[in-house]
Amino acid sequence: MAVDSKWLPISRAEILPKVLEGLQQRFIYSDEIGDVLSAALYEPCNLLLWGPGGHGKSDMVLAALRAIGLTDDEIFIQSFGEGMSEDRLWGGPDMASLDTCVRYDTSRSFLAPQYKVVIFEELFDAPAQALLPLKDVLTRRVFMNGPDRVPMHAKVVIACTNKDPRDFVEGNDAVQALMERFLLQKEVRWPQYEEKNYRELFAKVHPNASAAGYEFQRLLSCVIAGLNEEAFTMSPRMALQSLEVVANCARIRGDNLITADAFQSIRFVQGMQSYTADLSRKIEKQLPSGAIKLKLEASDLRDASEDPLRTSRAEIPTVISKSLKSRYIHCDEIIQVLTHAFYQPCNVLLWGPGGHGKSDMVMTALRKLGYGEEEIFLQSFGEGMSEDRLWGGPDISKLDECLEYDTDRSFLPYEMVVLEEILDASSQALLPLKDVLTRRTFMNGSRPVPMKSKVIIACTNKDPREFAKDSDAIKALLERFPLQLEVRWPTYVQSDYEALFAKSQPDASSDKRKLQRIYAHVIASLNDEREAGFKVSPRIALGGLRLAVNSVGRHGRKRMIVEDILTIRNVQGMESYKRDVESLIRSALLEGGIEVLLSDIDERAIKLRGEMDAINAKFDAARTFEGEARSEMNDLAIEAMIELISSVDRLRMELVQIVVTDPKLIQWKKLSEKNVEELADEIEAGT
């Protein structure tokens, strides 16, 4: 069979040496990958690369294709996944023909004539509805677009996946049939993951390292290799991000000095959240026992002089720290991870239970870095998130011709982007986002739109580890956020809530401070002791305190009572609380809020006195009635009197339970007891 040797800009004899040269400049253990890539291009034929994430499968393919002279305009890249559909696969509907028949705009798909090589990422995450027609086109090399035949011009299709094809081929005829269209297949992974392997990787990135830089690379390689275990292996991508983060710690210090503490920043690297062992202690164990002080040179650092944001790198740590510490508690780690994200700069994912101020802290930091509200793109994702919304909505002026988006209304032109609840979005929206974060370009029809965003901060209440387990497509998206941090308090005890209230009301009077102390004690008692159990979030705590204080004012009271504290039940987030809130609050007040209980008893005693007067009025009214009406009125009054006596007895019992040693509280309790007994005597006299 004759082979078309002119589809590439170089001769077939040059393919192998050019590919190997292109890969060896950036990657280690790439010769076998280069050999199989050159074989696919030489034939030409399709190729499947598979293996664990973070090994640069797609990056190596692109590097090889560029090394042989192909341009980005000649390479088509598309991510597959659970949300992949025929619409997306074939380029979306042809708007011009919608009135006559369903056709696709194949000029926006991999079938477009300019593409010579196609890269499909996470191909086998797609549903069978998308894979079956793709199999047919790869076989026949023709797509029937309505009545029209659209030839497939691309010579090579390279599929990349993190999944082992041996695990999901059996029992799935659609996948089996599609895999048979990939003549060449190769697993991509390192031969070992030991200290020497990581040192070789770091030497490739910084070939001219100083003596201190070389020693730093050796220590970091030792730490990383020591963290690897049967259930966890640090990928090359994670290792390179660890190198970046730890080195940046030296720059953030201001003296370019690497110390032992710098290695602890590895915990912020994407993927480390799934590490189950005591990470901090294990890192310490891999380091030498003596002090570490390594002064890095410019050759050991990336972008050593450039200031990527409008605030200089030298100012970023101080600006972030001051802006957050003045308003939030337990914010040291988020200060560190945001500082790293803005310093590098790179994307960051903040996740954790709701109500901890993730978005608020991000927006506070961005404003202090000099970005106005109109310069920050903020978008909420969710189940209803669509590609239309993600890319700014359709360009109405072009709807009659083709489907293009008004990207000026999307995040693409913005330097700073905040995406909220990103993991709530559907796969249809997340898949194209992953592609754009990778290539930093969005193909709007046939027009490339550059992504100008320097830092994208994604916030979610959901645990990304749960999503990554179920979907390689989501896992691939999460890998585009090199830094990740779970945002939650280390503890949820009374002192934490007191510190929160003090931070929110720094000028509060001593009486308000006392009230805050009591309230902090009460809400801390509502927390579940189990690690995964219910915790009163900072937002619930602050909202509950405001409601309680407002309740006092609304009812014209001088002191807070239990009813005011119980308004916390109406705060968003408490609807999922299953325990008896009132009994827990009363128990907590016995331990640390006697003033509220005594105020509550005094308030209820006043109300009971009013009820007694109302009952006496009923007895008086009954005397004016005759017969059955008089009897009914007396029965109602007697029933109310019995309930009144029971209520007074409850006040007596509550006073017995209150134990006080403070002289002022002893005096207060005696006065409350006197009032209750006087009320009881009046009731007895009335009966």
UniProtKB/TrEMBL annotation:
Domain MoxR stretches: 16-189, 320-488
Domain of life from the UniProt record: Bacteria
Protein name in the entry: ATPase RavA
Source organism (scientific name): Rosistilla ulvae
